[in-house]
Amino acid sequence: DTGVSQNPRHKITKRGQNVTFRCDPISEHNRLYWYRQTLGQGPEFLTYFQNEAQLEKSRLLSDRFSAERPKGSFSTLEIQRTEQGDSAMYLCASSRLLSRGRRGYTFGSGTRLTVV
Amino acid sequence: TQLLEQSPQFLSIQEGENLTVYCNSSSVFSSLQWYRQEPGEGPVLLVTVVTGGEVKKLKRLTFQFGDARKDSSLHITAAQPGDTGLYLCAGQTNDYKLSFGAGTTVTVRA
Question: Could you report the per-residue pLDDT of B47-103, keeping only the tens digit for each?
Fold first, then answer.
């Protein structure tokens, strides 16, 4: 179990540029999630995949955001025409089903995006 | 607006003291999780509680899920500097989504 890996760890970009983040989940986990966390807040749900299918998207995910999970393995989150309000920590998590209906979640270390 | 309200927002105590963090909501959750997050890192799962009234102990940490499955508490006995961090509660509202509280920043002074 190598954990959830996210790259890059930090990204500084100019307003209007596009950025792409990558997440490699735990291989046995069939679900993958993207969350966004701003300073002083808890993570907020953006979207999730079951295998390669994107099953739910939050209203937080504007049309400038797109996420993919080709072949149900790694996932990418792209933000087009970045705005200063996009500055946040972007967290990826994966999960598997445990006993008694519990889900075991593992979060990555996140990608810290700063839009200047 | 957060679905889960955590209190207090900040907590600073001396090593050896006890502390309790609260997580409250008007919503019912199928399960509730507690995480600890360090600066620049992702949240690390501490515990998942599922049954109303459930109490779980993890060394010096005690977690309780309310009878109605709307609230939870985290109690730390004899806190140590290594317990310093951001403590987050997260409720599972449906099959796939976790709703997090804003967190409680705990500082344990040596």
Answer: 999 999 999 999 999 999 999 999 999 999 999 999 999 999 999 877 778 999 999
State how far the Cα of B62 lies from the Cα of B88, in Å rounded to an integer: 15
A83 CA: distance to closest CA in chain B (Å): 22
Q: Which of B31, B40, B100 sits opposite A42 (nearest CB)?
A: B100
CA–CA dist B64, B35 (Å, integer)? 14
Probe site for chain B from A4, A103, A111, A112 (most B CB atoms < 10 A): A103
Measure Cα distances from B53 to A28, A29, A98, B70, B71 in Å.
Answer: 32, 29, 20, 11, 10
Q: How many CB pairs under 8 A join A and B?
A: 65
Which 17-56 residues of chain B touch chain A by CB within 8 A?
A: 30-31, 33, 35, 40-45, 48, 50
| Whole-number average pLDDT of chain A | 93
* A30-82 pLDDT tens trace: 899 999 999 989 999 999 999 889 898 898 888 999 999 988 899 999 999 99
- pLDDT, residue B80, reads 97
Cβ(B96)–Cβ(A48) under 8 Å?
A: yes
User: Looking at residue A61, what is its pLDDT?
Assistant: 86
> How far apart are the CA of B82 and the nearest CA of chain A, in angstroms?
19
